[in-house]
Queue: 4 jobs
Job 1
Amino acid sequence: MKTTIEISDPLLRDAKRLPIATGTTLRALVEQGLRQGRPRAPGERSIQTPGRKLQGQGAYPEFADAEWDKIREAIYEGRGG
């Protein structure tokens, strides 16, 4: 499911650096934080998800600190719309 959240600019900049340094994704980082911060009912087990390892060298340099608008433009470049 997709959703939109507002995060302070300094926190988001820091959060974008973590996936590059740890070999994960921003999505996985947010999901992990939500799982850890959610109160659990007595006896409820936590859900474990397998870690993902990404291949390559991380984000292209021109997108490392880019805003979503720039990334979206590049994704859809030349595809009409």
Note: The mean pLDDT is 77.
Job 2
Amino acid sequence: MKGYFLVLMVLLTACAAKKQVAEFEAQPSWMKQKPIITGYYVGIGSAKKVGTSSEYIANARKDALADLSGEVSTQISSTSVYHTIENKYGHVESYDQRIETTVEDYLEGFEPVEYYENNDSYWIYFRISKETYAEKKELKKQEALMTALAKYNSGIQEEKSTRPKEALTFYLQGLQAIKPYLKEETSVTYNESNMDIGNHLFSAMDQVLAALTIETETGEIKVKRGESFGQSLKFKVRYKDMPANGIPVEFAYTGGYLKTDRQNSDGDGFVFLQPEVIYSRNKQEQISAIINLKEIASKAVEDTFIRGLILKKSIQPAIVKITIESPSMALKISENCCEGDECSRLKQVFNQNAIGGGYQFIDNNPSDFTFSLSYNVNPGNSAGGLVSVDLKGEIKLTDKSSKTIWTKEISGIRGVGVNGKESREKAFDEFKTALDRNYIKQGLDKINAGF
């Protein structure tokens, strides 16, 4: 029985091998070895038979066109704008990845030579005349160069009118128009002489960015935490020392978010950041005003590679340093409340909470915030040789204008001991603990929440 199965397996294997050989022999020669044809670019593509026939045929065509475009290699010209970009920023991989797709724009004259299919897959064979490809590419290149030249001229006029944002827009659009040819020479006739429009566009963009500046009129301010800086921060955008209108500026604050974080410069080149409340517990923060190149680029062109050319540049931001002062806090205890060292012990608790909350504790008014505390201790019941006392009180928080921010009634505190002194001590300890763990923090939270 085992011998029978062994013979069966040998026969099946032999049949499968014969079938594979037969299928291979049936394949056209262009599948076995990619053809090399003088004067032509060749592309072979394939796809698994998944989905409808139109879907897998389309995938095979796409694969063949990608193979065809891979046949077309462009040598980097030493005078090209791409060469300039590489020297300035290093190798730009994203460009290399996307340039292959633009090659397909010139493959409109390709010829479907043959196709082949079996039960599982579909293959297709394309070719295009190198002469046809070169003609179509040159025609489109000349159209792109003329568009780029027109954009360059428009940018020059905008520069003369002190409109740097508009000039940058035209230069970026010009570079986008000739993106497929950035590795090549991009010569045009300009003022009766030849010039490389790609390099001139790139150089003009660089020069505009180098001439853009933003400055602040106030280098440093002092602010008390919980308050806003007194007046608007003023920044000025200049282009070649002239006011620049309509330049997008972005504000950044190291201590968190700003209510207003973007603004365009006005006709005099100014942008203003309105007063905002500072809540940071750090002693130093800063606000930066940055020319928003990302916004200029995104509104100028769609191509992310071309946008990236401007985003690789940096313009020195204008920085305002902020020194943050801690608000002051005082404690006012009603007369005839304390016995012994109770007042000093209460002050110690408030001082610790003030420091932990980022406040400066002071002994006398005026202060930014004042906790007013009153309490009294009344005898309670006595039984079994023990006496009790009840402590009741009130804590109130006011600001520097004496406006009440928060109040809290304190009750339910009882002390029991062998005598009145011990009972009062225990009630006071519980009272002090409640202030430390709950009530003072509730008042500070009210301040931090902006009342």
Note: Residues 97-101 have pLDDT under 50 and may be disordered.
Job 3
Amino acid sequence: MRLIDADKLCEDLLERWSIADTRKEELIRQVMADIVTPIIASQPTIENKQNWTPCSEKMPNLSQEVLMSDEFDTVRVGSLEKNIDDYLPGDYYWEDSHGYLYDVDDWVAWMPLPKSYKLNRKNR
């Protein structure tokens, strides 16, 4: 399946046909309004639901692998850990999947990792 931007499709169609004479353009606009637009509107949509949780609202469970996001849109896999060595200031720190440690304030939001892809072995 390929996702498309239906609004952009309508714009492009109208733009391509706009060089036609006025009568033809009028007819095309009517076809777009009466046929194409309702067909597009009836198609299923897929919403991109990203469930980012601001760190200021809630933190993940300790050692739970999550996606971490900083103020510069960097995203890494990591976990919140209890600081027992005073390596970083504060009671907790973030550790990414490469073992790098970060101050808790370096990351602004987190979200659970998506579920892994389940291969349907019957269709292989």
Note: The chain has two domains: 6-41, 53-112.
Job 4
Amino acid sequence: MSDDNVIILPVVTKLDTTPERVLQAAIDAGLKGAVVLGWDADGDEYFSSSIADGGEVNWLLDRLKLKLLQNADA
């Protein structure tokens, strides 16, 4: 199925989406740094970061985890 006729809305959803769509949205946002977490095709954990400082990465993860928890019932 093609996404050619799909309008992407800036809303929170409970439905999964493709990694390609999420990564393209991150590219389009012009981020100054990025952290990517996920599972590969074998089910193994995947981690990559453009931010070299592990403390800064952890700080970002904790801040965004707090935002996620605050929206848990949304």
Note: The mean pLDDT is 89.
